[in-house]
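To whoever is on call:

I kicked off a structure prediction for a single chain this morning and the downstream step that reads the tokens threw a length-mismatch warning. I double-checked the sequence; it's 266 residues and nothing unusual in it as far as I can see. Pasting both halves so you can look.
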Amino acid sequence: MTNDTSPSGADDRLLVHALLDGELDPAHALEVERKIAADPALAAERARALALRQALQKVPRKPLPAHVRMRVERAIGLEASRAEAGRFGAARRARGRPSWAALAASVAIALLAGSASTYVALAPSGGDRVAEEVADDHLRALMASQPFEVASSDRHTVKPWFNGKIPQAPRVVDLAQQEFPLVGGRIDVIGGEAVPSLVYRHRQHLISVAAIPDGKVAGAPIQRRAIRGYNLIGWRDGNTAYWAVSDLGTTELDAFVQAFRNAPAE
């Protein structure tokens, strides 16, 4: 079917995708099936494509990012111009071979599927995205003239400060006896929404605690991350997700989280 002398040339691999897309007429579909039966590389290509399709069917559909769509369209345009001038020209189509439109469609689907699967595989999960933003907000606070907007060690001062600024004031606990004194609070932006963050201190280290109403901490009750040199611990309490971030070691940050979670209710 192709002039490629290799048993699994690029043309044949494209035709495998065209076969899976239902773009081939019965005669050519049978010819490709025979090639697949005789060539383990083509059989593996079909198996990979089928596995990818099955995996994508389980993934929630999301629009492709603009830069991925542009890459796909650019790639298809380049391939189309080459194909029109090459072996998939009018003479071959006149002999009943698959049209470039059919092959381009299969290439587009393959590229879109590959880009989408790569994007899904590499894109951070909901919990990872939140953790990244919490770490970024903590870093920005450290770079500011002061890491809080309200400076106080009195929870009865810090908690009311949030009233009117966000829908719900956070849970504020006094941990001075556990050597984690409260030093203030601020408002961060996570997921495009304003959320309260409390600031505690342990010796020379600051700890930011973001309280995200209806936030998501997927998976285990306790989640741990290490992002750009900072340790993070996430957990859920009722309808609120908490993320604590600091340059403290994991043991000390664990001790803080336990103290925070075990503090008596306000």
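Update from on-call: the warning came from a stale cache, not from the record. Cleared it. Sanity check on the structure: The longest strand covers residues 193-202.
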